[in-house]
Write a structure and sequence with these properties.
Chain A is of the alpha+beta class. Chain A is built from 3 helices and 3 strands, in the order ααβαββ. In chain A, α1 crosses α2. In chain A, about 10% of the residues are buried. Classes of the chains: A alpha+beta, B alpha+beta.
Chain lengths: ~100, ~500
């Protein structure tokens, strides 16, 4: 994973890269400001690393559950007009989206 | 987009200088009734956006719950490929933006897939190649984009696109091979044989209908070339959009020829995604501005881990059906076929049809004769697959039974088949409706025999004079007047009785 570890300072280029991946148009001034702010957030989160957890297995979930599954049974879907009512644009019963290639 | 045609090296020449390494990533859409993480139906061909809900549309506040049948199918595919089944497995978010993924990420698996380290043996020209399986993981399918305003629905030059999310969230299993070296000239065929065998297995498991033309089985084919004797493998390309077994083979062949030309010219093969074109059999570069992929995978917080216990996996393993390789070996034994004869059946996609025909009562020899002969010809003439012919194995078995009991002869059987294929009903019905049954020793046949004798006194003379083979002309005459409906042996006997025996 390419997100920098908290030990490296978060640079302007990192923010620009993340902004692009997130499709966010940030100004130069915002890039500088967010680099500083996100750095502070990462530092704060990094405090967790100080905890003594040598004998605790890593986990991604706090709940002691596994294999939460549902039966393979089809249930009713939403009516299409309801679905498309939430779309910024629709055409031919489909979601209409801007041109995909050459967007930048 | 204008491109100059690729320079290509002759295939046989490629092999004098380079060795290929191939690899395949195969996506199989599972045949579950509902989607991977919600209850929306998965029926193919429904009206656009009629099979969606807050979960598969990625609306805020919705929460996924994994489909038990999809998890079981994945484990069964893993077991059939000899994989290790994880005792601890998780879903992960693969983050990227594209209009066909409504959530902004695809729920997939990353470092903890359900199945790892399997293999599949495939046979090409009597030689066995072992394909190592790296992993089998479970994920969800994307929606479908329709591009508007460009040429023939292509994304290039499109003005905008329209998205149907019916497919979004359908369970998808990805089967990834390890790189396959050492196949040399057979690389294209090994790739095809692997996908063919994988398809057979998934079909036997009942995990998917694996119809490539409907996209329920899709392949990405990796190909690289390195100079013979080189210690390192070359740079690989990944060809997407490979949607038929034949295309799998063609895409490897094309990439080998193209890459050889690049390397011959001291050039570098670019590591890139390429698209396969069914019409020309060529590949072209994917998006030119492809960024280094950065999916920022992280564990899916909305789904708890999967921890298949030993008892569950053991039960799934015990319930696996007979797998294709074992089935073929058994049938070869039972039907007394050689490996080559079995290969013909498999290549003609006729094994299942013949098996079902035998199960419906036909002899293996008759079933094979009909499917590989007359029916293969009909399918070929009509430009359809054997399985698409409008005749069922049970009907073919009925046809062979009518032949065996003498109700019809070979010629009448073909006419009966015409009727069945034309939708006139089963063979018995057609024989009845068209009056195709072989004539017994009826008054009509007696009249025809006597007319033939009366009409050719010269022939009768010859026969009586000892030239018994001249009787053939009389048989022919009777068959003609009865329009092939008489039984030749019966006619011959009746003529002999009247001409020689009297």
């Amino acid at each position: 994973m390419s997100t920098p570890s908290p030990k490296e300072a978060l640079g302007r280029d990192d923010i620009a890269h993340l902004a692009r991946l997130s499709r966010l148009a940030l100004t130069d001034e915002e890039l500088d400001r967010f680099a500083g702010q996100l750095g502070a957030v990462l530092d704060a989160v990094a405090q967790v690393g100080k905890a003594e957890v040598g004998d605790v297995p890593p986990t991604t979930h706090a709940v002691p559950l596994t294999n939460v599954l549902r039966e393979d049974v089809a249930t009713p879907s939403l009516p299409r007009d309801v679905v498309l009512a939430g779309a910024p644009a629709a055409e031919d019963d489909r979601f209409r989206v801007p041109r995909i290639l050459g967007e930048d | 987009m204008t491109t100059t045609p690729d320079r290509l090296v002759d295939f046989d020449e490629v092999l004098t200088r380079y060795e290929p390494v191939i690899g395949l990533e195969t996506h199989v859409e599972l045949g579950t009734a509902s989607k991977m993480f919600c209850g929306c139906s998965t029926t193919f061909g429904a009206d656009p956006n009629t099979q969606t809900c807050p979960v598969c549309l990625g609306l805020p506040g919705s929460l996924p719950v994994a489909n038990a049948a999809a998890v079981e199918h994945t484990i069964r595919i893993g077991l059939a490929l000899g994989c290790r089944i994880a005792t601890w497995s998780r879903f992960a978010r693969k983050n990227y933006f594209y209009p066909d993924i409504p959530k902004g990420f695809q729920t997939s698996q990353y470092d903890e897939p359900l199945c790892t380290a399997g293999h599949l043996d495939v046979e090409v020209d009597g030689e066995t190649y072992r394909v190592e399986i790296e992993r089998v993981h479970l994920e969800e399918d994307t929606g479908k984009n329709l591009h508007v305003g460009g040429a023939t629905g292509r994304i290039h030059g499109a003005d905008h696109s329209l998205v149907d999310f019916n497919r979004a969230g359908i369970p998808l299993v990805e089967i990834v091979t390890r790189p396959i070296p050492g196949t040399g000239a057979k690389a294209p065929e090994v790739a095809r044989a692997y996908v063919t065998e994988l398809r057979e297995i998934v079909q036997a498991l009942g995990a998917s209908d694996v119809r490539m033309e409907q996209g329920s089985l899709r392949c990405d084919v990796n190909t690289s070339l390195a100079p013979i004797g080189s210690l390192e493998w070359g740079t690989r390309t990944e060809t997407k959009n490979v949607n038929s077994l034949r295309s799998v083979e063609r895409s490897v062949r094309y990439e080998m020829r193209r890459q050889a030309a690049v390397l011959d010219a001291e050039g570098r093969v670019l590591q890139e995604t390429r698209h396969f074109h069914e019409d020309t059999g060529s590949t072209s570069p994917g998006r030119s501005k492809e960024e280094a992929t950065d999916y920022r995978y992280f564990p899916e917080p909305d789904l708890v881990p999967l921890a298949p216990d030993a008892a569950w996996v053991e039960k799934l393993g015990a319930d696996l059906p007979e797998l294709p390789a074992a089935r073929r070996a058994r049938l070869m034994e039972e039907w007394g076929l050689s490996a080559t004869e079995m290969a013909w059946l498999v290549n003609a996609d006729a094994l299942g049809l013949v098996t079902d025909t035998v199960a419906a009562g036909a002899s293996p020899a008759d079933a094979r004769k009909w499917w590989l002969g007359e029916l293969a010809r009909r399918a070929n003439d009509a430009g359809v697959e054997l399985t698409q012919l409008a005749v069922t194995p049970a009907q073919v078995a009925e046809l062979t039974a009518l032949l065996a009991d003498g109700t019809i002869n070979d010629q009448l059987a073909r006419q009966t088949l015409d009727g069945v294929l034309a939708g006139e009903g089963g063979p018995k019905q057609v024989v009845e409706a068209r009056g195709l049954a072989v004539m017994g020793e009826s008054d009509e046949l007696v009249a025809a025999v006597e007319a033939a004798i009366a009409g050719a006194p010269d022939v009768v003379e010859k026969v009586r004079g000892g030239k018994v083979q001249a009787l053939g002309a009389l048989v022919g005459a009777v068959m003609k007047t009865t329009r092939g409906k008489a039984d030749a042996a019966t006619v011959k006997r009746m003529l002999e009785e009247r001409v020689v025996g009297s």
